[in-house]
Sequence to fold (456 residues):
Amino acid sequence: MDAADEQRLLHILRAAQGDPALLALIPLDLTFTDEAERERLRTVLLAAAVPHWFDAPFLAALLATSLDGASGLMGKLQRLTNVETFPARGDGACNVHEASRLALREHLRLKHPDLWQTYAQRAHAHLAAGKETHERVEALYHLFAADADAAVAACKTLGGYLGQNPSTRAALCLALNELRDEGWLTGAALVEALRAPLWYRSSRGEVSQLEAEAWALLDLAKAHAHSSRVADAYLLLGDVHIAHGELSKALDCHTESKTISERLAASAPDNAARQRDLSVSLNKLGNLAVAQGDLARALRCFSEAKTIAERLAASDPANAAWQRDLGISLNKLGDLAVAQGDLARALRCFSEAKTIAERLAASDPANAERQRDLSISLNKLGNLAVAQGDLAGGLRSFSESKSIAEHLAASDPANAAWQRDLFVSLNKLGDLAVAQGDLARALRCFSEAKTIAKRL
Fold:
């Protein structure tokens, strides 16, 4: 760098005055000497900073230009030190370095809101038809900027579609966390962006760590008079209290959730989502009743929940979520039948639940949630077989369940819930080995289970 370049750099730095966005533009000022070209490329770089990645077709869509024109502009952007290749999104994909991207995007949102909206709308339109998970998450991300109300409904739909798959659900939660942390969202959009990541973390066995965030969700949902999300927040707080051994507080929270869900369901009898929310609340209260030894109250709650689940499942046999809800209700009633000593009724419930779980798992083998449901059903049938003296039947069920648990645990070693499932399966097989007199096999199972317990 000669003296003239040094002076030019000093001038640029002084002009930036520590502004992160202006500092992010410095590589462009240093790389291109022609003023007209720099001005054109500033616009291009700002557009490229809106999405998490871009390629030539994406850049063409953002700038409303031809593919050839976008390809030429990409070649120039790639000369900048803060533009990187991004092979995770295919050959030719790039992204603006995270620190620069965040600064430029925020500058665009605050200083040029109309252009910001235009880029968000174009990005969403470009990605909306995509089938890949990363395309759907990125499309939703831009929809929150372009049309927050539409994004709330789309977020619920996408969250349900992604289920419990760690890699896909995590991508959605990262995008929502970024939106929330950047302070872009208000109202129902902000509530949804806080809620979805909490439910994801809860499904991963982290519920005991979520008390402060659950209270924050409750306060936010109340502030925006978002009744269904107030009910959700109470459900989550109830689960937090259960994790802490505070059953009385949990009962208060779950009762409050049921009261709200009941009112909403009564106000819209044909609204399936509200009916389903009530079913979930009833199951939570049933779980608590079991924990408190009130089996009669548990039976009432579980039976009401099953009635709702049966009605929804019959209304749309192709709806996997509603079929799954029915399976959950059947398992809960089966557990209760075991506690009441009615093993014949328990077998009927568990067998029906397993049939549903098998069908759903077979229809989508990559869906971790459905595989886990099948594993749980197998364990319940295994327990019942052992209780009835059928050790061979118990071994078959426990072994199948362990195979599923092993696969899930290996796919995501950080998922505490899935590691715990494997721990449970190993202990069940160990207990069965003891009952069959195979102490060497029992020792292997218990030793593996102990290793998992230590790690957890």
